[in-house]
Amino acid sequence: MTRSTICWLLGSGIVALATFAACRYDPVPQDLIDGLGEEPGEPSELHRAGQPCLACHSVYEGAEPRMSVGGTIYYEASDGRILPAPEVLVEVTDSRQVTRKACTNAAGNFWVEHEDWRDVSFPLTVRAGERRMISIVGRDGSCASCHSLPDEASLDPVTGAGRASAGVVVVSESDVGAICVPSGGTTSSSTTSTTSSTSSSGGGAGGEGGVGGGTSSTTSSSSSAGGGSGGGGGA
């Protein structure tokens, strides 16, 4: 039973009114969450690659950890497949020139926890590996809100690019597996940054890459995004 159904029952008096105060229902974020599909297994740092992380890891849904920024990075292998990109350094800089750094994990997921960046100030600029994002991130910390996985509406079924999406974020294969040191100074494929920097390298996690190999999976915990694909964001 979805939250919207429960809230409707509560509001209709079908369920005990005493529990109504515990129900928070906002149709916009809830429709987004409902559209992500069922969790295929146990939630983990590898789950829901390519999906908008902050849909759930936010005040509204309350998934832990709460995040300020989160997404999924891919790379194009020599055989043309688009695969999750582990050990890629992602740098996000806000409008006050404060930077947080994070390393992608085995699913290509990365994130910065809200506790580490409570006062993030939009817009943001992003860099993933050696790739800089040309445009800015206006107000949404989930990369997959714009860089979505391929679906039946994609103009390019490999990249996911179309009128409503820039396609998934793809870096060079040379960016993968490098020594990745987040802001905290610990080399890790999943540790998020905990300290800030006043320098900014701008751009990064751009939107011209793609997800190869055909149909992608939006719920696989460590899938390679359709013979290739995988968001973020999910997570």
3D structure, described in words:
Strands 1, 2, 5 and 10 form a four-stranded mixed sheet that branches. Helix content is 7%, strand content 17%. It folds into two domains: 1-35, no CATH class; 40-235, no CATH class. The chain contains two helices and ten strands. It has helices spanning 3-11, 27-34, and strands at 67-76, 82-84, 89-93, 99-103, 109-113, 125-128, 131-132, 161-162, 165-166, 169-171. It is mainly β and 235 residues long.
Radius of gyration: 18 Å
Structural class: mainly beta
Number of helices: 2
How far apart the termini lie comes to: 22 Å
For the record, the count of structural domains works out to: 2
pLDDT averaged over residues: 77
Elements, N to C (H/E)? HHEEEEEEEEEE
User: What composes the largest sheet?
Assistant: 4 strands, mixed
Number of strands: 10
The global form is globular
Strand content: 15-25%
| Poorly predicted runs of 5 or more residues | 17-22, 186-210, 212-235
What share of residues is helical? under 10%
